Amino acid sequence: MANGGIIGPPNTVTPAVCAAANVVEINSSGTYNKTAAAPSTVDLVVVAGGGAGGPEGGGGGAGGLVYIACFPLAADATPVTVGGGGTSGGPSTCGPGNNSVFGDGTNPVTALGGGGGGGSGGPVGRNGNPGGSGGAGSRAQPVGCATQGDISGFPGSGFGNPGGGSQPTVPQVGGGGGGAGGSAGPSTAGCGGVGKGSPTIPWMPNCVGQCSFLGGGGGGWSGNPPSSNSLVGGNGGGGTNTSGYGGPQPDSSGTVNTGGGGAGGGSSYGFGGSGKVVVQEKAYSVPAKAPGVWSMASVYANVKAGTWTN
Known about the structure:
The chain has 310 residues and is mainly β. Helix content is 3%, strand content 18%.
């Protein structure tokens, strides 16, 4: 079609639309690359690896969790380190979780690995170990404190809780590991602390973590047959010891990529779950477009109708 020296097919204006928010899950170390057109401010969750549970002892603490509702990206490509869960250690040094980091040295957001649960050597109890969330003590020994703090410039962004104690009146029971969202139960229950999720992180999809929760503490250990509501790991991937004194069970370790703490065991113990990073790219408007080569008649008609865009 020729019109005033311009030749091209007739086209239509593409109207403006809203691109929906996009949730990106990062389960291993590497680089996060922002969607090109998405805003440079994102919602960010970083959880570290959970601590291991103690042999004949307390549950491991969950990895510390950081939640920032509006985090400004320094660049479109951001390095990410996802911390592994605690895997080894004896009664006094049960394996701590490893840190998770979003960003480089100039703009890091760091979640601290969970503390290992206190094990025991015969009748001797051990302290729970400090970490993002603290590990539980065994045989009436002190609990591990929570070390996760806020990120500089973002008050209220860091989450972690201490482990649960093993009471003198119930020395054969280890407490539960601390969770990102709550302290662990005492040794009479041995439950791990709950992780962090809704309503604090309302946009977290249900398929992320354990029912949208991350950072559950590991359950404790009991030398006696557990009751129906004891030794349970916290919602958010905490391990549960279902075996009494026996060796590790399939669910005694923290769930992978939740930051959950491992359960205290009998002759063994559960490992901590690895960490995770979750980024929500916010919704944004895609402007109207008028692509291609246009006839003068089409340009005139759109301008007159108010539908032409630059």
